[in-house]
Amino acid sequence: MESKIVIVHSDKRVRKALEVLCSVHHEPIAVRDVKAGLKMILKISPALAVVGLDSQKKEALQLLRYMKSYGSVVPVIVVAGRGAGALQMQAMKAGAKGFLEYPVDQSRIDREISRVLQTSLDVTDSIPPITEEEANTNRTEMERTLNRRMKCHVGKNQVYLRSLIIGLTKTKPRITLKCALRADFNMQSQIYYEYIRDVCCNDPSACPAVQQFAAKNSA
User: Fold this and answer.
1) Which residue, 63, 77, 118, 153, has fewest beta-carbon neighbours within 10 Å?
2) In this predicted model, what pLDDT tens digit does every residue of 68-86 receive, in sequence order?
């Protein structure tokens, strides 16, 4: 199942570019303004929202305030335009869970989406739905490929296929990694395909556990 992502951006060209990037692994729904964005978020409760931030209009900050007033817990990644990078601290204080400066490439947006989605899963201690990519691929070969691509030293040869028994039914095997480092920092130790693909096998420095480990050992 692909995650639904609402994209809110006033610039048609940027909005389309973000929609194309997000459509590789997710199901994006793009709208052009805060009002339409809030309406869509409240209507479908997407997995995540990607919201543009202009240094003059500051529409992302406005949407975050509205979402808070309506009690929405949908995580938001802010994408800052030219001159808006200085507003990162303000955006994070307003409730944003991720922050990128435009332009962004496929790797950066995939990594940030997977990181933010995993952070939400950590809070609820839940398992993400199986992705279409995972469901429609030879998972044994996928497991081998991810182990070959692994960049995080903690995850070396740790990707495996895991099934769960729920009631009397055994679930289909899932791409899984049990991360000892995340467990050390009181995070959910079991992580799944998207996070493994975009963070562990792409840029481990984006992982909060790796960041906390680095900070602890540099103190």
Assistant:
1) 153
2) 999 999 999 999 998 899 9
Specify the DSSP element, H or E, that contains 46: none
Query: Token digits for 49?
Result: 């929202």
For helices 106-124 and 12-22, angle between their N-to-C axes, nearest 10 degrees: 70
Task: Check whether the bond before 129 is cis (ω within 30° of 0).
Answer: no
DSSP secondary structure letter of residue 171: P
Distance (Å, whole) CA 7 – CA 41: 10
Question: What's the rounded Cα separation, in Å, for the pair 187 and 180?
Answer: 10
pTM: 0.93
CA distances from 192 to 30, 126, 140 (A): 27, 11, 14
pLDDT in tens, 159-207: 999 987 667 788 889 999 999 999 999 999 999 999 999 999 999 999 9
Helices and strands: H and E segment counts in the chain: 10, 10
